[in-house]
Amino acid sequence: MGGFKDKWKTFLTGRMDRAEARRFLHFLFTKDGEKEMESGISEFMDQKEEEGYESEIASVIENFKKRNQRHAVQASKNKNHWPGKGLLIWAACIGSAIMMVYHAPGFLSGFNETQSDGENLEKAETVIKSNGRGQKSKILMTDGSIIYLNASSELSYSRNFSHNRVVRLTGEAYFEVANDSLNPFRVITGEIETVALGTAFNINAYREEQVQVALASGKVLVEHQENRNSVFLNPGQSTEFQPEGGKLKVLPVDTHKISLWKEGILYFEKKPFPDLIPLLENWYNVDIEIRGTMPDDRCTGRFEKKEYLSNVLKVLEHSIGFSFEIEGSKVIIYN
């Protein structure tokens, strides 16, 4: 219950940002949210029966159930539905009634502890994990989640991560998120925020203006923080922000191919040759120089773990028609 009480306190006191408040309200109107709400109320009703709060709280619970049922019907008709203004008002009404219980001395002592924890979180040391070119790493988080960090990528998070599951990513990573319905897992990549409970997904953010999120299992919410555009992804779907249209576009994706890179398999499909250059540079820790005209071909290939760069270039050489030479960590392509 501690996690739920902490979030409820933060919500009621206005210390929860807009995006997090929307997610919290969405959770309240799920079956798990209803159970958490009823459990919290019942716990303190037992302690405060003699103080005359029973009828007020019982009324709140009953109305909450009715509202929850109506909301569930509405949400089933629109999978991307988010609680609107009416829901915000309703949540405020719930908060006003339940705050009578929350002001009980025993309950406030728990909040005082939470506030201290919050102050500690703000002062907590930031952990930074980074990989250079040609490097990949596997990171086991304190909540049980696993993050695979690709080459030329950086991940940062609070040392108190279990209490505040937020990471910031530059580059690419694959996430296997441990389930925690009261503490969503958030990944921030520039203006894009991805929120998950328990799921597996890949984020490619080498180019901040073209962040791609691909879902292998579970469900995630992807939201653009500036224009508030958001989409839900189901397994087999991906999204990337389209600057020209200002929207997140949902596209199909092969779930098996999402994680090939973390298994050491170099895979690309219909990738423009200019975009293939930085991929090869990161993968093999080399610098590639083009002498002549940059090829504009689209390339597809799959190379097993620890495949030599020379073999990759020979395949591309045969299909595109250029020649190359390798001098240490320098590659020259003649076209």
UniProtKB/TrEMBL annotation:
<dbReference type="Pfam" id="PF16344">
    <property type="entry name" value="FecR_C"/>
</dbReference>
<dbReference type="GO" id="GO:0016989">
    <property type="term" value="F:sigma factor antagonist activity"/>
</dbReference>
<feature type="domain" description="Protein FecR C-terminal">
    <location>
        <begin position="266"/>
        <end position="333"/>
    </location>
</feature>
<feature type="domain" description="FecR protein">
    <location>
        <begin position="132"/>
        <end position="220"/>
    </location>
</feature>
<keyword id="KW-1133">Transmembrane helix</keyword>
<keyword id="KW-0812">Transmembrane</keyword>
<keyword id="KW-0472">Membrane</keyword>
<protein>
    <submittedName>
        <fullName>FecR family protein</fullName>
    </submittedName>
</protein>
<feature type="transmembrane region" description="Helical">
    <location>
        <begin position="87"/>
        <end position="105"/>
    </location>
</feature>
<dbReference type="Pfam" id="PF04773">
    <property type="entry name" value="FecR"/>
</dbReference>
<dbReference type="InterPro" id="IPR012373">
    <property type="entry name" value="Ferrdict_sens_TM"/>
</dbReference>
<dbReference type="InterPro" id="IPR032508">
    <property type="entry name" value="FecR_C"/>
</dbReference>
<dbReference type="InterPro" id="IPR006860">
    <property type="entry name" value="FecR"/>
</dbReference>
